[in-house]
UniProtKB/TrEMBL annotation:
Name this polypeptide is given: Stage 0 sporulation protein A homolog
Coiled coil: none
Short name of one Pfam family: LytTR
Keyword ATP-binding: no
């Protein structure tokens, strides 16, 4: 049995990113900043620059961006209207508004925007917001495993933790347990490192499903308790604190 028949690739998927801004000077600047970020993180990506309402409508007929950086104040279609149109076809796209005004906060909340970036956009601010966006995208994706000869799709957001049991691994999810014959290391290679961390030789946990950590013991939401290997303790704490900083700040 080949590896790829056991588990679909997730964290190596291409990021589809759109920048929609009618100002070419701003558009070019944002393109440079976003590609710098993506190259530093070693992502595979496509970045599409859009300057007009017609081009935007045509794009949405064929693609759905993972992330859209969207100007608000545009003459023919403001960013809030563009975001509403996107939400009609995609609930998962991460919307980042770029603006010099705070007067659209209520509308931004309505379309479930991730954040604002104040113009002129600073690179440090972009990095912080993009890390959050990528984290959400990774966590909304799925893996597919062979379980009892049936292809089973599992959303990463449903996973609580994964453990080795003999020759099998068991994926504990919010919807029940799924067993499959494969190595834990093979699963780990396909999980986003900003949302999952190995805590022992036999277990990987979903960081967002951690309730709290007390010493060497992790208590997961739902009550399961897992012991952290001393060799992995520093790595586990670093991953947990980084997730909390990116998710809650």
């Amino acid at each position: 049995m080949t590896f790829m028949s056991d588990l679909a690739e997730t964290n190596k998927a291409v990021l589809e990113i759109m920048i929609y801004d009618d100002d070419m000077t701003d558009l070019n600047l944002h393109h440079k900043l976003i590609t710098k970020y993506l190259d530093e993180r070693d992502f595979d990506y496509n970045v599409t620059d859009i300057t007009s309402q017609d081009d935007y409508s045509e794009y949405l007929k064929n693609k759905k961006p993972d992330i859209i950086l969207l100007d608000i104040l545009m003459p023919t279609q403001n960013g809030i209207e563009a975001a509403r149109k996107l939400r009609e076809v995609s609930k998962m796209s991460q919307i980042i508004f770029m603006t010099g005004s705070d007067s659209f906060a209520a509308e931004a909340f309505e379309v479930e925007a991730l954040s604002y970036l104040k113009k002129p956009v600073k690179y440090d601010s972009l990095v912080h917001v993009m890390d959050k966006a990528v984290q959400r995208i990774n966590y909304s994706r799925s893996i597919t495993v062979n379980s009892e000869r049936i292809q089973t799709k599992i959303f990463l957001s449903d996973i609580i933790y994964i453990e080795t049991q003999g020759r099998k691994i068991v994926i504990h999810t919010m919807k029940g347990d799924v067993s499959t014959y494969m190595a834990l290391s093979a699963v780990q290679e396909k999980l986003p490192t900003n949302s999952f961390v190995q805590v022992s030789r036999f277990e990987i946990v979903a960081i967002p499903r951690i309730n709290y950590i007390n010493g060497n013991v992790i208590t997961m939401r739902g009550g399961s308790e897992l012991r952290i290997s001393p060799k992995l303790k520093e790595k586990v704490f670093e991953a947990y604190e980084l997730y909390r900083a990116n998710h809650y700040n």
